[in-house]
Amino acid sequence: MTPGAPPVERALRYHSSRMTHPPTTAAATHPGETPAGEPGPVRIGCVRYLNTLPLIEGLEKLADVSLAPAPPCRLAGMLASGEVDVALVSLIDAQRHGFTILPVGAIGCDGPTMTVRLYSAEPIENITRVHADAESHTAAALVRIVLFLAHGVRPEVVEFDVRERMADAGPLEWPDALLMIGDKVVTDSPPAIRYPHQLDLGEAWKKLTGLPFVYAAWMCRAGEQDTPSVRTARVVLDRARRHNATRADWVVTRRAASRNWPADLAREYLNDLLRYDPPTAGSRQRRAVERFFDEAAALGLLDQRSPTRYAD
User: Which residue has the higher pLDDT, 164 or 206?
Assistant: First the structure.
């Protein structure tokens, strides 16, 4: 590495050409600085689901980048507290925390999603309580919106730790209605005989609105989109997304089995169902973001519906 090279230039240099997974770099002691007072690594909060690989694969080999993996529900707090410079944040937290959405990538769909799913022992229109996967703030809001728009029902939503089968009131094996997200929908799905009624929330949203849906996007704190660390992050994240789009089959071949995904299903999921384009000005994704926030506000899921911040 050339001494004194600009942060963006240094961050774009790979440590190795081998496609391996070396350990991530430890975060700097103070934001943007190493103990020696030199620019520290750009700290990026991310999720390690299969669906995030097209956004983050290869980042761990970049100079001056520190990945901070965490469950989706923790990333908003990490970003708000300054623990990371940018993060792949659940969409609704852009409103709840006033974050700025960066035009470098998102996770969404334009129809079925596969891994954001409502399971019910009763017909969907009869649901009165949903035990919602604690890992996603946006999915918990989306299920309320979909059930209200489609059936006029407003069920109680109870946080549920799907992995531990724990609700606020204590252990619970399989509740009557369950919202589940992420890889576990495929790798640890509940028994089909328990849930004869199921709903893919991405597909339901598309039928109701005619729009795609955005579950999460890269974000930074308000007013920091032009700081050196966020500018560097924008470059590397945009480049990673574009590069990984050219090698989607390679990602599936190398990563699906270790996450207990069948390769053919993983390939369909990443290549055919999911969308990674950011919600840029004039795009259908941008319209979907604004419609989602409007619907969430109408149901009282936001304390205040503020203008969405975009770093266009």
Answer: 206
Give the HSE-up count for residue 78: Cα atoms under 13 Å, Cβ half-sphere.
24
With contact defined as beta carbons under 8 Å apart, do 148 and 298 qualify?
no
Domain architecture of the chain: domains with CATH? 7-109+213-310 (3.40.190.10), 116-209 (3.40.190.10)
pLDDT band at 16 (very low <50, low <70, confident <90, very high): very low
DSSP 174: S
DSSP 127-147: --EEEEETT-HHHHHHHHHHH
Residue 26 backbone zone (phi > 0: left; psi -120 to 50: alpha; other: beta): beta
The CA distance from 57 to 105, in Å, is 13
- Contact at 8 Å (CB) between 45 and 84? yes
β-sheet bridge partners, residue 171: 166
For residues 91 and 97, the answer to whether their CB atoms sit within 8 Å is: no
**Residue 104: both structure tokens together:** 């470098």
DSSP state of 266: H
List, in sequence order, the alpha helices (H) in the chain.
7-11, 53-56, 72-81, 93-97, 137-151, 184-187, 201-209, 228-245, 248-255, 263-268, 284-298
Torsion (CA) 24, 229, 33, 22 in degrees, nearest 10: 10
Query: How far is residue 295's CA from residue 144's CA, in Å, rounded to a whole number?
Result: 10
Helix (H, G, I), strand (E, B) or coil at 162: coil
Q: How far is CA 36 from the centre of its chain?
A: 34
Tell me the average pLDDT across 35-48: 79
pLDDT at residue 52, as a whole number: 97
